[in-house]
Amino acid sequence: MNKFTAIILGAAALSLTAPAFAADVEVERNERLYDASGASVAKVNRVETDGDVLVIYKGKVRRIQSDTLSKTDGKLATTLTKKEIRGLN
Questions:
Q1: Is 66 within 8 Å of 21 (Cβ atoms)?
Q2: Beta strands, E only, 1-89
Q3: Whole-angstrom distance, CA of residue 44 vs CA of residue 46
């Protein structure tokens, strides 16, 4: 095996990571996200490579930072409130 083949195989192996891990929290697409009060926000639409998750909330894509995410009793939650989420881009 030459260097080029090893590089290609290494890059391919890195791209096959699923589910993604957000701030030590395992997050999967279509998982339900809850806000700080425990209210349902939306399903996870996408998990970014940096661990942030994208959800569609109030008709817009919102990026929830990975450092706000946690899992309690198997539920994915953020420390943000719905009002704070509404203000995100």
A1: no
A2: 20-22, 25-27, 32-34, 40-47, 53-57, 60-64, 69-72, 75-78
A3: 6
Check: CB of residue 62 under 8 Å from CB of residue 54: yes
Helix (H, G, I), strand (E, B), or coil: what is residue 38? Answer: coil
Taking residues 73-80, report their average pLDDT: 95
Query: Domains in the chain and their CATH numbers?
Result: 19-86 (2.30.30.240)
Cα separation, 23 vs 61, in Å, equals 20
Instruction: Record the pTM.
Output: 0.72
- Tell the burial category of 89 from Cβ atoms under 10 Å away from its Cβ (0-12, 13-18, 19+): exposed
Lowest mean pLDDT among 6-20, 44-58, 64-78: 6-20
